[in-house]
Amino acid sequence: MTRECHVRFCERLRGKVLRPTHHFGMKAHIGVDAESGLVHTVIGTAANVNDVTQAGALLHGHETVGFGDAGYRGVEKREEAQGPTWHVAMQPGKRRRLDLTRPWARLLEQAEQLKASVRAKVEHPFHVIKNLFKHKKVRYKGLAKNEAQLFSLFGLANLVIAKRPLLALHARGAS
0.90 exceeded by the pTM? Predict the structure, then answer.
């Protein structure tokens, strides 16, 4: 090992030379039907894209009500997300600070629980993909390939979710 190589090696060990840190992350934004729990829209974005910017693209046009977590705060002000009445979750910190000894705070907490029960429908397809299909990390570099894989995975998740009602229909003799 030459002296120059040895110096570079030692500098790396001490942390003086910055190594390139390339991290690739993405988010899957999905629109889910509240009644059936089936996914109707899938959008893959970089991990640093805010959730509220995709709210308008998740609508298919026939919604009367939209539910979102705290990341969708301010969605009612966005032009592309106009149409449905939005019910957005309270920020977790504000929810923790509620004084539940007061009647109005208990009502707010009940309202938040109702919103959360509807939003839980969105989490079920993610549960199927992560736990049933074991897809927890992105496989490829680049959004296009990963988004194509997400389309396939969410389509298959729809089949898994729709399986039970379809089998019940078949058992009753519906054709």
Answer: no
